[in-house]
Design a protein that fits this description.
6-stranded mixed sheet, globular, about 220 residues, alpha/beta, Rossmann fold
Length: about 220
């Protein structure tokens, strides 16, 4: 894996609805609901958040914090242990063949590959292993000294501008040249990172992203 780290070229992949053809949070919450984990209050809180977001009254950061509040008071290890079965059953079958092909191409070129996503660290580990991706930029859960989750993120939630902050930090340590690098994304949330690289590519875009991509002549996968 380390031979890639000499290349100044990196390929940044968003996860949900880009590398993964669906939204992993939606699947995750469905599984948790089936297992009886979700209270009616929490579901209402989520739906209300989604409604506020549609109206443009709250941003991705707010939504992410609402999502994360679910984890408060729960044992982190339970989620870590559930990650591999969740990947095998729900994520692996939903990976996008077109985007996987791009990932393989970048790996063959010796480019550094980066998963950059608002999704949560524990269930992305099996994705990283299975797809042999070099670097992970994501949202980390805060865990207390007893291994119990606080329901808060550790550091910034990795959405929007935060993706660029994390990417810049990675670039410093791994000699990445953004002007030669690629980024793949599907939503407005990815615009900062798409604008940050020499070769942005849009995948299955939301309306808002499609309009911006057209204005900038960004290619679409």
């Amino acid at each position: 894996m380390n031979q890639n780290h000499h290349s100044p070229v990196a390929a940044f992949f968003d996860f949900d609805e880009t590398l993964l053809a669906v939204d992993s949070a939606t699947i995750g919450f469905k599984v948790l609901k089936d297992q009886g984990y979700l209270s009616k209050t929490f579901i209402l809180k989520l739906l209300f958040g989604v409604f506020l977001k549609r109206l443009g009254l709250v941003d991705e950061q707010y939504m992410a914090r609402t999502f994360l509040s679910f984890y408060k008071g729960r044992e982190f290890q339970l989620f870590v242990d559930s990650a591999q079965p969740f990947y095998d059953e729900h994520l692996a079958p939903n990976l996008s063949p077109e985007v996987l092909q791009k990932l393989s191409w970048h790996q063959e070129q010796g480019h550094q590959t980066v998963l950059v996503t608002g999704s949560i660290d524990y269930y992305l580990k099996p994705v990283m292993d299975a797809l042999k991706i070099d670097h992970l930029l994501c949202t980390y859960l805060e865990v207390d000294e007893h291994g119990i989750l606080t329901g808060r993120p550790k550091g910034q939630v990795c959405v929007g501008e935060a993706k660029v902050t994390y990417a810049n930090d990675l670039a410093k340590h791994h000699g990445i040249d953004f002007s030669q690098s690629y980024a793949y994304g599907n939503s407005e949330n990815d615009i900062p990172i798409l604008k940050h690289v020499g070769y942005p590519v849009i995948v299955n875009p939301t309306k808002g992203l499609a309009q911006i991509a057209k204005r900038h002549n960004w290619p679409s996968l």
